[in-house]
Each structure stands twice: as structure tokens, then as C-alpha cells.
Design brief:
Pantoate--beta-alanine Ligase, Chain: A,domain 2, about 325 residues, alpha+beta, five-stranded antiparallel sheet
Length: about 325
């Protein structure tokens, strides 16, 4: 009789243990499913908020550019402040930079592979200032140009065919900045270093890509001409912080030492005649609870289709 009672107790304990385990598993699955649904919902909300930041940025740029004769870093700073929003749903932070204040690396070479004698020297000086070898530009020129013979430090399709996976040299302009990663010698570190100074976008064409001195970085300003010094570049920055420069003549008249050089820079399209950019990069970061989504877009606010590039991560 005792053995039967002992056996019944053992069975009861086993059943109880199984029920506890099953209950725990059920509760865990419910929690995981609920958390997954909540995270998915938060991700969707954050994605929509980030996209709305881009839309708002485009609208503000359209309005701002229509109201004045120039664009400047101060204008972009005001845009950022207007688009820093906190509400009960989440937060949005939008940053903006002008692509027209960068060097269009597509412009260093003509489609036939011949160096563009206006922009290739600027790129050479810029790469040296950034601690990069100007020979990297040979690889860019070969990637863009339709010529068949590779430069000394360049590379054409036979080189890229030896890589895994193999691919061909493009023989056309870069479509995105990230495409540089495919070019011989360019790694992620190099792209990160170049991003503030280099673009692939231009509203004026491939072979003519003047730079806005109101938004160009100091290293790029100092690379515009072999006679440009760091002191002159800093003088431009100091002046534009007080009063943005509307024209090349304005630059020459208001920055000591730039009177003749400003006109020379404008005459061969190294800088804009009127310092008003038209292409901008917007980065919109949204957070809902612990979920963060970022949308990065290159936009041309004055165009019928303003979005040139879109990436979400």
C-alpha cells in the first residue's frame, strides 16, 4: 500500500513538474511574441518618423532657397534646429549638409578618360591634405573613363576580374558616393575620411562642378588653387560666419587677399558665381522607445522629383 502511495506521489510530482514547465514555456512564448510585436510596431513608427523628417527637410529647403540669393552653413543649422522634435510618440533629429559645397569627384576626368585640368588638380591637393595618395585618383579616373588602357596607378576591367567576386570597371560616372568602395584602393576608412569633402552629385553637369565657398570645408577651400593658403581658407570661413558671401565678387571684396584670386576661381568654374547650392544630404534619425531608425537622402529641392538617393538603416 505504501509503495502504491509512493508511486502515486511520484507521478503527481512528475505531472506537476511538466505542468510548471509547460506554463513557463507558454508565458515565455507570450512574452517573446508580445515583445516582438511591440518592437515591430516601434520600428514601423520610427521608420515613418524618420521619413517624415526628410519630407520636412525638403519643404524647409524649398522655402529657404526661394527666399534668398545664397545658401550657407548658418541656414542649414537653422534647419536642424527646426527639425529637432520631441513628442509623445518619439524623437526626430535631422542634420543637413550641402553637396554643392563638396568636390564632385566625377568631374576629375572627362568621359574619354582625359584629366579635367580644372578639377583634377583640386582633387590632388585635397587628397594630399587629407593624408591620402593622389594616385588613388588614377583608379577613379579609370573607373569613370571609357578609355581601355589603365593608368600607372589605376585599374581597368582586367584587374577587377581577378577579384572575388569579379566585376567590370564601370566606364561611367559614379552614381553614389558608396560606389567608390568598388574602386581599387578605396576601403571603408578612406570613404569615411572623404565623405565631408567629396560628392558625386552636381546640378550643373559632370564636367563643370563649381563649389560653394559658403559651405565648403577648410581643407577643400585651401585646395582650390595652388596659391591658396590655410590662412586664406580660414579668412573665408571667418567672413562667411558673419555674413554669407553672395557672389564671387563679394568674396573678392570682403576677404583680404582674395580680390584677384576670387575672380580667377569663378572664371573657370572652380567656385560658384552665385553662392547658392541646390543639392543637399539630409540625415533623419528617429527614436521610438529603444528603437532607432535612420533615413539618409540626397535631395534637390528645386527639382520635380527631389529625391536623388534614399537609404534606410
Amino acid at each position: 500500500m505504501k509503495n502504491e502511495r509512493g508511486f502515486a506521489l511520484l507521478i503527481t510530482l512528475l505531472i506537476t513538474t511538466l505542468l510548471v514547465a509547460l506554463t513557463a514555456e507558454f508565458v515565455d512564448e507570450v512574452f517573446v511574441d508580445s515583445s516582438a510585436r511591440e518592437n515591430f510596431t516601434d520600428s514601423q513608427k520610427a521608420s515613418l518618423l524618420a521619413a517624415s523628417g526628410i519630407t520636412g527637410g525638403i519643404k524647409l529647403l524649398q522655402y529657404g532657397l526661394s527666399m534668398q540669393e545664397y545658401s550657407s552653413l548658418a541656414d542649414l543649422d537653422r534647419l536642424v534646429k527646426l527639425l529637432s522634435i520631441d513628442d509623445e510618440i518619439g524623437t526626430i533629429r535631422v542634420t543637413a549638409e550641402e553637396e554643392s559645397g563638396k568636390l564632385n569627384i566625377n568631374a576629375i576626368v572627362y568621359p574619354n578618360g582625359k584629366d579635367n585640368d580644372i578639377y583634377r588638380p583640386i582633387a590632388n591637393r585635397l587628397f594630399i591634405k587629407l593624408g591620402l595618395s593622389p594616385q588613388l585618383l588614377d583608379a577613379v579616373a579609370d573607373w569613370i573613363g571609357t578609355n581601355e588602357v589603365a593608368r600607372t596607378a589605376g585599374a581597368k576591367t582586367p584587374y577587377y576580374q581577378t577579384l572575388m567576386p569579379p566585376y567590370a570597371a564601370k566606364g561611367a560616372s559614379l552614381d553614389t558616393f558608396e560606389e567608390l568602395r568598388l574602386v581599387k584602393g578605396f576601403d571603408n576608412k578612406t570613404l569615411a575620411l572623404l565623405r565631408p569633402f567629396v560628392t558625386v552629385y552636381s546640378s550643373t553637369g559632370i564636367s563643370v562642378a563649381p563649389i560653394n565657398v559658403n559651405t565648403a570645408a577648410k581643407q577643400l577651400l585651401a585646395s582650390l588653387d595652388e596659391t591658396m593658403t590655410d590662412d586664406l581658407a580660414q579668412a573665408i570661413i571667418d567672413k562667411r560666419m558673419i555674413t554669407p558671401l553672395k557672389t564671387a565678387i563679394d568674396l573678392g571684396n570682403n576677404v583680404p587677399g582674395m580680390s584677384a584670386l576670387a575672380l580667377a576661381l569663378a572664371s573657370n568654374s572652380r567656385i560658384m558665381q552665385n553662392e547658392k547650392g541646390s543639392i543637399f544630404r539630409l540625415i533623419s534619425q528617429a527614436q521610438v522607445k529603444e528603437t532607432v531608425r535612420i533615413v539618409e537622402a540626397v535631395v534637390q529641392p528645386g527639382a520635380t522629383q527631389p529625391i536623388l538617393y534614399w537609404r534606410e538603416y
